[in-house]
Amino acid sequence: MRNRTPLIAGNWKMYKITPEAVDTARQLVKLVADCSNVDIMIAPVFTALDPVSGVVRGSRVALGAQNLHWEKEGAYTGEISADMLVSAGCQYVIIGHSERRQYFGETDETVNQKIRAAIDAGLIPVFCVGESEADREAGQTFSVLDKQVKMGLDKYFAKDLGTLVIAYEPVWAIGTGKTATKEQAQEVHAYIRSLIDQLFDQALAQSLRILYGGSVKPDNIAALMEMPDIDGALVGGASLDAGSFSKIVKFK
Ligand code: PEP
User: Fold this and answer.
1) From the CA of 74, how far away is ligand 1's center (Å)?
2) Please, are residues 113 and 147 in contact by the beta-carbon 8 Å criterion?
3) Active-site residue (options: 99, 106, 131, 169)
4) Quick check: 223 and 184 in contact, CB under 8 A?
């Protein structure tokens, strides 16, 4: 029986200008006002963080960002630090999303530094890992995840990682409409949990929330959430509409 509070997180990627983001956040706040026993997060683009924070403040919905830089400040044109995200109202930050790894040169080393910056600033890191289709077909799923988790969390201690969230997002399932089966996802989540137990300790492994991401929709969330090691979802496309995202939040 899972005693971890589920987290349903929406990654809005590079969608929605500020008035659209504010409007969607307003609708969502109303739709989920009566939800309990589930944590909810939305991650709009940087320019919408501050205005959306005014909408979600005091509601069931928490604010997250989609990326950060690991330095506190400096001559890093175009970058945003953890403290800047906190001052814009963020509680969470997504780190190492496969789109950042694929298109923007994110590596296991930069992910590692970003997790440190997030934790030091009091942000909850949502650390994304996942194999490509080629990795899966080559039977490399577990070795790829092993490397991502070990390098992403290298030099950390269990005491640093109390708030950490891991999102397992098979790259072949993101934005493709192909969801991992609940059994495929459960197998990987259980593997990640056992890896955390091996690398850190059992208490952290048992309290760690592991989200599934990859074409999660209102009609497949309930089945995924039946699985003992799936503690919620990181949702892309279906989080852009407040109605469909709220249905995912109300998966029970
Ligand atoms: C994501 O971007 O993290 C994601 C899982 O996207 P989608 O739900 O659209 O597959």
Assistant:
1) 32
2) no
3) 169
4) no
Which atom of ligand 1 is found nearest the CA of 174? Answer: 10
Q: Which residue has the tokens 């789109």?
A: 99
Structure token pair of residue 150: 């070990």
Atom in ligand 1 nearest the alpha carbon of residue 237? 9
DSSP 211: E
Q: Would you tell me how many other CB atoms lie within 10 Å of the CB of residue 252? A: 10
* pLDDT at 175 exceeding the cut of 90: no
Q: How many CB atoms lie within 10 A of CB 159?
A: 9
Radius of gyration of the chain (CA): 17
pLDDT tens per residue, range 2-12: 789 999 999 99
Q: Is 219 helix (H, G, I), strand (E, B) or coil?
A: coil
Give the position, in ligand 1's atom list, of the atom nearest the Cα of 215: 10
Burial string for 187-223 (b: 16+ CB within 10 Å, else e) reads: ebbebbbebbeebbeeebbebbbbbbbbbbebebbee
Q: What is the pTM of this model?
A: 0.97
Residue 189 catalytic? no
- The question of whether 69 is a catalytic residue gets the answer no
Residues facing residue 61 across a β-bridge: 40
**Set 69, 97, 106, 189: catalytic member:** 97
Helix (H) or strand (E) segment spanning residue 41: strand 39-43
How many residues can be counted in the chain?
Answer: 252
Token pair of 55 as six digits: 């909408």
